[in-house]
Specification:
By secondary structure, the chain is α/β, with parallel strands linked by helices. It has nine helices and twelve strands.
Length: 281
C-alpha cells in the first residue's frame, strides 16, 4: 500500500480515533510548536529539541524511543520547501507521515501546498478559526469576507477591512491584531479577537482598533473586523458577501459632496473617473 501524508486539523479538542491511529503509525510528523508539543512530543515521545533552523522550519532528523522524526514549522499555516521535500521523501520511502495543522487544513492552509506537489494525502479537518470566532459571538459567517494577512498581502487585507462591513482576518507572525488595529485607527470598526485559539489560554476580546494596536496578543489569533457588531448580514446566495452593487448602488449621493457653486462634477463624471482609476485593495 502506498504511503500517504495524513493532514490532521487541530482545534483544541481531542483528536478522533482515526487521526490518532495515523499519528501513532507516522514516521514523520510536521506542525507548529504548540501542536507538536501536545500531540507528537508529549504523546509519542518524538524529539523536537535541539533542532536546526532551515527554510522556515525546524528540522530534527532523529527520534527518541522509536518515536517519529519531527519538523517544526515557524509559520504553522505554511509548508516551506524543506518540509515539503521531507514529506515527499517519506512517502517515496513508504513511510507514512502526518501534518498537524490548526483548524481546517483546506481553508487557507497546508493542504494546497501538498496537492500542488502531488503528494498523496488524507485530510481530517477540524473546526476552522473563522467558524470558531463566529460561533463565539453567535454570528452566522456566510457573509463574512475572508483575507489572509501573510506577507505582502497585509496592505490589501487592511484595505478590504476598510471597505467591507464584515471581514475575517487570518493572522500571521508580524501581521496580527495589533498591526491590523494600527491600520484601522480612525475607521469605524470593531475588532473581535480570539487569542491562543484552541489553547489553554484562549480568550475572546472585543476592542476598537486603537486598543487592538496597543495590546500584546498571544498567538495564534483570529480577528473579525466589523462595521457594526450587532448587525447580521442579510441571507444571500454567495459566501463572502454580495459581489454586485446593492439596490441603491455603490456611489454616494450628490448631496454627500461639498463644492463651490457651479464647480461640482456630475455623478457621471465621477463614475468615469473612478472607472479610469480602477482602484484595487
Amino acid at each position: 500500500m502506498t504511503a500517504t501524508v495524513t493532514v490532521i486539523g487541530v482545534d483544541g479538542d481531542d483528536l478522533p480515533a482515526t487521526a490518532l491511529k495515523a499519528l501513532a503509525d507516522a514516521r514523520l510528523v510536521v506542525g507548529g510548536r504548540s501542536v507538536l508539543s501536545r500531540w507528537a512530543a508529549a504523546t509519542l515521545g518524538a524529539r523536537s529539541d535541539g533542532a536546526a533552523r532551515s527554510g522556515g522550519s525546524s528540522v530534527d532528523g532523529s527520534s527518541r524511543g522509536g518515536g517519529p522524526r519531527t519538523i517544526e514549522l515557524t509559520v504553522p499555516a505554511e509548508l516551506p520547501g524543506a518540509a515539503l521535500d521531507a514529506l515527499a521523501a517519506s512517502v517515496e520511502a513508504g513511510e507514512p507521515a502526518v501534518v498537524l495543522a490548526s483548524g481546517d487544513p483546506g481553508y487557507f492552509g497546508v493542504l494546497r501546498a501538498l496537492r500542488e506537489r502531488s503528494v498523496p494525502t488524507v485530510c481530517w479537518p477540524a473546526v476552522s478559526y473563522l467558524q470558531r470566532i463566529a460561533a463565539m459571538i453567535q454570528r452566522p459567517w456566510d457573509d463574512i469576507t475572508v483575507v489572509a494577512m501573510r506577507g505582502r498581502a497585509f496592505r490589501k487585507a487592511v484595505n478590504v477591512c476598510r471597505a467591507r462591513p464584515a471581514v475575517g482576518a487570518l493572522t500571521a507572525p508580524g501581521a496580527g491584531p495589533a498591526e491590523l488595529g494600527a491600520g484601522l485607527v480612525g475607521w469605524r470598526r470593531t475588532l473581535v479577537v480570539v487569542q491562543d485559539v484552541g489553547g489553554p489560554h484562549e480568550e475572546l476580546s472585543i476592542v476598537d482598533p486603537a486598543e487592538a494596536a496597543a495590546r500584546a496578543w498571544r498567538e495564534p489569533t483570529i480577528v473579525l473586523s466589523l462595521a457594526d457588531l450587532d448587525r447580521v448580514g442579510p441571507a444571500g446566495w454567495l459566501a463572502g458577501g454580495e459581489p454586485v452593487p446593492p439596490a441603491d448602488g455603490w456611489a454616494l449621493g450628490q448631496d454627500a459632496f461639498t463644492h463651490r457653486e457651479g464647480m461640482g462634477g456630475s455623478p457621471e463624471l465621477r463614475a468615469l473617473a473612478l472607472a479610469r482609476l480602477a482602484p484595487r485593495p
